[in-house]
TrEMBL record:
InterPro entries: Kinase-like_dom_sf, Prot_kinase_dom, Ser_Thr_kinase. CDD domains: PKc (cd00180). GO terms for molecular function: ATP binding; protein serine/threonine kinase activity. GO terms for cellular component: cytoplasm. Residues 88-328 form the Protein kinase domain. Residues 1-24 are annotated as: Disordered. This is Protein kinase domain-containing protein. It comes from the Eukaryota. Residues 10-19 have a biased composition (Polar residues).
Length: 328
């Protein structure tokens, strides 16, 4: 077991070796969090306990009472699915709203809230996130992925713990309330996808729930479980993949460009965001329409979409919109 920080000599291969079942090593992992709790604490990461969650909701309940709310204390303590009542304060407290591969925690001594994700150490997801976390990628303002703070590898168990900043409220629940803020958010989604594509990475599961915000005007992609990083010169074809927003050719069982699959999913996602936002943006549906072309060869590249965005909606450029714009 050792702490892992990316270095070129340690970069994983582009795909699992033939001796490893690719489906197995790219499936979700369900670790025994209690078993790995000491290891994570050794590296400075405290997993949420019953006491932590109870203290949070006690504080929340006190504020509600101060504001005259009629909510009951027991109801607040059990919200979000936390099994807090009648348990010892030091017991781990799993958020039932998260998959078993994720756990909330705190970075010590900074106090920063984090999400710790477990993946197979041979998975494509780890490979992609390691690459996106290289210094060169992280310095690039076009990299709209949630920052990974740490990678802790347990090689003998084929596990990797990825420590991510805790962002919240996907586009489903947190859409910008002004047209300028909305366009700024959409531009980040497009620019982030363009960044991935120029680095030969296809996300392959772009959706409402996989784009989060930090509530300061920044939006970022998460969940690279289905993602692929293609080698230079490799044909980026995919077939029979699963995902939230799949284009018609994939639904028919045909092969398609992984990048054009992303374009379709992006189109569906930003159109849903537009309908949910209730803002008025002239010609936005016409702007999105080419992304949803039935023929994948007729869908524009991410670079072309970004260029069209800046041409049609110049107010979406970073220096034009307020990064702290109000959010619903």
């Amino acid at each position: 077991m050792h702490r892992f920080r990316w270095a070129p000599s340690h970069q994983p291969s582009a795909s699992p070796t033939s001796s490893v079942d690719e489906e197995d090593c790219n499936s979700r992992v369900t670790p025994d969090w209690s078993h790995y709790r000491p290891l994570l604490l050794k590296h400075g990461y405290h997993l949420d306990t019953v006491g932590d969650v109870r203290a949070y909701y006690e504080h929340y309940w006190a504020n509600q009472c101060h504001e005259g709310s009629s909510n009951s204390r027991s109801g607040l303590l059990s919200c979000k699915g936390y099994p807090c009542p009648d348990r010892l304060d030091d017991e781990l407290c799993k958020d039932r709203g998260l998959p078993d591969s994720l756990f909330r925690g705190t970075q010590r001594p900074s106090g920063k809230k984090v999400i710790i994700k477990t993946v197979d150490s041979r998975s494509r997801e780890l490979e992609v996130l390691l690459y996106l976390s290289t210094p060169a990628c992280r310095r690039d303002a076009a990299n709209h992925t949630i920052p990974a703070l740490d990678f802790i590898i347990v090689r003998e168990d084929h596990l990797a713990f990825i420590v991510l900043e805790e962002w919240s409220a996907s586009l489903t629940h947190c859409t910008p309330s002004t047209s300028r803020a909305f366009l700024g958010a959409i531009r980040q989604c497009i620019e982030g996808l363009h960044f991935m594509h120029i680095h030969n990475i296809a996300h392959l599961d772009i959706s409402f729930s996989n784009i989060l915000t930090n509530h300061s005007g920044s939006y970022a992609y998460i969940d690279f479980e289905l993602s692929r990083r293609f080698l230079p010169g490799e044909t980026p074809l995919v077939k029979g993949i699963r995902g939230t927003e799949l284009p018609p050719e994939i639904e028919r069982g045909e092969a398609s460009s992984a990048f054009k699959v992303d374009i379709w999913a992006l189109g569906v996602t930003i159109l849903r965001a537009y309908k949910a936002s209730e803002v008025e943006v002239p010609h936005f549906k016409e702007f999105v329409r080419p992304l949803l072309h039935e023929n994948p060869k007729m869908r524009p590249s991410a670079a072309a979409v970004l260029h069209a965005m800046e041409r049609i909606y110049p107010e979406a450029r970073p220096h034009k919109w307020n990064i702290g714009a109000p959010i619903n």
